[in-house]
Design brief:
12 helices; OB fold (Dihydrolipoamide Acetyltransferase, E2P); binds magnesium ion; binds 4-amino-1,4-dioxobutan-2-aminium adenosine-5'-monophosphate; alpha+beta
C-alpha cells in the first residue's frame, strides 16, 4: 500500500482508515486508548486524534512491554489486514511495539498516576485539566468540529466576496457601550511605582469587546469584510453560554439592508450546519449518541426549513400569552431573558427565530433608527437550547441622527470622532452582525457548557 506520508514519516490513523489501495507494512504512532490481554493475544487500540476512531492493533504471540498503560505514547509496526471484528474494516497485525513515553497507571515516587485512565470522566473534572482533556473522546471531537467550522467560516465568506479583516485587540473605545471591559495597562497594579511618562498609550486602553466599529470603517472601503477574532468581556455572568474570552465572527457589508443581513445570517448558519454534517459525520455521530440525542436530525431539519421571523413587538405579544410561565414577566421594552428566548424558539417556532426591530433603549447606539422613533433595525438570531447565537443590525448611516443619539447617551467625546467621519465622507447604508463562535460549536455539538467547546476556557474565577 502507498500511503501519502508527507511529514514525520508516519501516516495519520485517519489516512490509514481511509486508505483503500491495498494493505501492507506500516508504522503508526499514537496514544494507547485501551489494552485487552487474552493469553497469547493482546489487543491495543491506539488513537492519534486525527479522527474519532482508533486503530486496533493485534499482538498475536508478539511481546508487549509489561505494564504498558492507557495514555502511553507508542510506535507500532505491522501489517494492515482486513479485520475479522465488527465495526472496523482493517486492523494492524502488529510485529513490534516501542513505548515512546509512558503514563504511569499508579503513583510513582516522581510522577502521579495518569489522571485519565477511566473510560469516562465528568466534564467538570476535565475542566480542571485543560492541558490533558484534549485526549478524551469528547473534547477531541469538539476540537475537530471547531477546526472544521473555523475553516467553513472562511470558506463561506470567501465564496461571497468578503475580505478577511484583522481588527485590533487593544482598543481605546467601548463598541457596545456595555462597560464590561478589561483594562490594559503597564502600570504597577499597586500604584506604588507610577511608570515614568504615564501609562503605555498615554490614555486608557482596553481589550476589545467587538471589532465591529473598525470593520465598519473597512466595509466603507472594501464593501464586504469580516473579522474572526477573540473578543473579551469582563462579565460576571457565570452561565453556560458566556466566556470572558471568546471568538467572534463579524461580517460587515456596505449597501446591505436589514433584510440582506438576515438573509446572510440564515445562509451562514445553514451553510455551516451542512458543512458539519458532511465533514464531521463521525464526530457528530458520537455527539448524537452520547451528548445530545437527535442533534444530527435537528441540524438536518434546520438546514432544510426557513427560519421564523418576527418583530420584537410580535415576540412580546407571543410571550405575554404565556406570561405566567416566566420568572421575568415579559412587557414591551424589556430585554429578552433566556427563558423568553427559549420559549420563542422551542415553543412558538420549534426552531431558529430571527427577532427584529427592538426598542432602541435596549440596543446599542449605532443601530439604525426606524421611523417610529421607538425601535431600531436590530436583529437577533435565536436558537433552541442556547437562545441568542447572532446579534446584529443595520447601522445608522445618517450623520445627524447618529450624532444626536450619541449625544443623548453622553457619548459625544472625541474618541468616537473617527466613527462619525465614516458618516461625513461617502456614507452608505450598511449592516452587519456578530456570531459567537463557541455558541455555534455548542449548537452543532450539543455540548451544554460553553467552557467545554474552547481549548482553554476563561471565565470569572477560572483561568487554568
Ligand atoms: O450581541 P453582541 O454583543 O453584538 C456585538 O458585539 C456586535 N458588535 C456584533 C455586530 O453587530 N458586529 O455579540 C454578538 C454575539 C452574541 O450573539 C453571542 O453569540 C456572542 O457574540 N457573545 C458571546 N459569546 C460567548 N461569551 C460571551 N460573553 C459573549 N457575548 C456575546
Ligand atoms: Mg446581543
Amino acid at each position: 500500500m502507498v500511503l501519502m506520508v508527507r511529514y514525520g514519516m508516519f501516516p495519520l490513523i485517519k489516512e490509514i482508515l481511509a486508505a483503500k489501495d491495498g494493505f501492507g507494512e506500516i508504522c503508526v504512532r499514537g496514544w494507547v486508548k485501551t489494552k485487552r490481554d487474552m493469553k497469547n493475544l493482546v489487543f491495543i487500540e491506539i488513537n492519534d486524534g486525527s479522527c474519532f476512531s482508533g486503530l486496533q492493533c493485534t499482538f498475536d504471540g508478539v511481546p508487549v512491554p509489561a505494564g504498558l498503560s492507557t495514555g502511553s505514547s507508542v510506535e507500532i509496526t505491522g501489517r494492515l489486514v482486513p479485520s475479522p471484528s465488527q465495526g472496523q474494516a482493517v486492523e494492524l497485525a502488529a510485529a513490534a511495539i516501542t513505548v515512546l513515553g509512558g503514563a504511569p497507571a499508579e503513583d510513582t515516587p516522581s510522577i502521579k498516576a495518569y489522571p485519565l485512565q477511566k473510560k469516562r470522566h465528568s466534564l467538570e473534572f476535565l475542566r480542571e485539566m485543560p492541558h490533558l482533556r484534549g485526549r478524551t473522546n469528547t473534547i477531541a471531537a469538539v476540537m475537530r468540529v471547531r477546526s472544521a467550522m473555523a475553516f467553513g467560516v472562511h470558506r463561506f465568506f470567501r465564496e461571497r466576496g468578503f475580505q478577511y479583516l484583522h481588527t485590533p485587540i487593544i482598543t481605546g473605545s467601548d463598541a457596545e457601550g456595555a462597560g464590561a471591559m478589561f483594562r490594559v495597562t503597564t502600570q504597577d497594579p499597586g500604584g506604588t511605582k507610577p511608570e515614568r511618562g504615564g501609562d503605555f498609550f498615554g490614555r486608557e486602553s482596553f481589550l476589545t469587546v467587538s471589532g465591529q466599529l473598525e470593520a465598519e470603517a473597512y466595509a466603507a472601503a472594501l464593501s464586504r469584510v469580516y473579522t474572526f477574532a477573540p473578543a473579551f468581556r469582563a462579565e460576571h455572568s457565570n452561565t453556560a453560554r458566556h466566556l470572558a474570552e471568546f471568538w467572534m465572527i463579524e461580517p460587515e457589508a456596505a449597501f446591505f439592508t436589514l433584510s440582506d443581513n438576515m438573509a446572510l445570517a440564515e445562509d451562514f448558519l445553514k451553510t455551516l450546519f451542512s458543512a458539519a454534517l458532511e465533514e464531521c459525520e463521525e464526530d457528530l455521530g458520537f455527539f448524537d449518541t452520547h451528548i445530545e440525542k437527535g442533534i444530527v436530525g435537528t441540524l438536518k431539519s434546520v438546514t432544510e426549513s426557513a427560519f421564523t421571523r418576527m418583530t420584537y413587538t410580535e415576540a412580546i405579544a407571543e410571550l405575554e400569552k404565556a406570561a405566567s410561565s416566566f420568572a421575568y414577566k415579559p412587557y414591551w421594552g424589556c430585554d429578552l431573558q433566556s427563558e423568553h428566548e427559549k420559549y420563542l424558539t422551542e415553543k412558538t417556532a420549534g426552531g431558529p427565530v430571527i427577532v427584529t426591530d427592538y426598542p432602541k433603549e435596549i440596543k446599542a447606539f449605532y443601530m439604525k433608527q426606524n421611523g417610529d422613533g421607538k425601535t431600531v433595525k436590530a436583529m437577533d438570531v435565536l436558537v433552541p437550547r442556547l437562545g441568542e447565537i447572532i446579534g446584529g443590525s443595520e447601522r445608522e448611516e445618517n450623520l445627524d441622527v447618529l450624532a444626536a443619539r450619541m449625544a443623548e447617551l453622553g457619548m459625544n467625546d472625541e474618541s468616537y470622532d473617527w466613527y462619525l467621519d465614516l458618516r461625513r465622507y461617502g456614507s452608505v447604508p450598511h449592516s452587519g452582525f456578530g456570531m459567537g463562535f463557541e455558541r455555534l460549536i455548542q449548537y452543532v455539538t450539543g455540548m451544554a457548557n460553553i467552557r467545554d467547546v474552547i481549548p482553554y476556557p476563561r471565565a470569572a474565577g477560572q483561568l487554568y
